[in-house]
Prior knowledge:
Order of helices and strands: EEEEEEEEEEEEEEH
Strand content: over 45%
Largest sheet: 6 strands, antiparallel, barrel
Distance between the termini: 18 Å
Mean pLDDT: 89
Number of domains: 2
CATH architecture of the largest domain: Beta Barrel
Number of helices: 1
CATH superfamily of the largest domain: Translation factors
Structural class: mainly beta
Low-confidence stretches: none
Strand order of the largest sheet: 1-2-6-4-3-7
Shape: elongated
Amino acid sequence: MTRGFFFPQDVYKIGGIGTVPVGRVETGKIKPGMVVAFAPNGPVTEVKSVEMHHEALLEANPGDNVGFNVKNVSVKDLKRGFVTSDSKNDPAKEAADFLAQVIVLNHPGQIQAGYSPVLDCHTAHIACKFAELVTKIDRRTGKELEANPKNVKSGDSCMVKMVPSKPMCVESFQQYSALGRFAVRDMKQTVAVGVIKDVTKKEAGAKTTKSAEKALKKK
């Protein structure tokens, strides 16, 4: 069964309905009655209804842009950059760190360990530290050219261990491409691009709403 991922673009408070995240279904399905987790550090709650163009849906599929009503959750609890997933099917979690292959496109100087630019990954926009330059590699063959390089510059490709400065949700590109690729932004431009190879995840301690507890007991 495919893990379902939904990317909320915006969150609205709608009178008489409640809190409604709006965005795109990336993989899997989302349907009423499902108990979803908002990662990296949001609540676990039940989906009350799913709508597309003001029509109620029995389920939403990949590519659908939908809104869904969640119970016992405030608009303040949900943020752009969160990933919504099925709480019972390997839900998305906060990343402690991740290993990525980075290609430096256009940087005026040299990039060293400690560099902390902003990463644009799915709807998240978060500063991440280049904690360790692991290897410099040939961007065409993937062969290692140098272990633990002191720095990298435009045109170089390298494996980098990265640490997010704030809670962030990513996956390996091979498993879920939309959560596994990013652009590195600095000086108002894209200075590098990357794909995520491996992720070390934090164990979630998310708040479960009363609505979710009831729904989980029913099943």
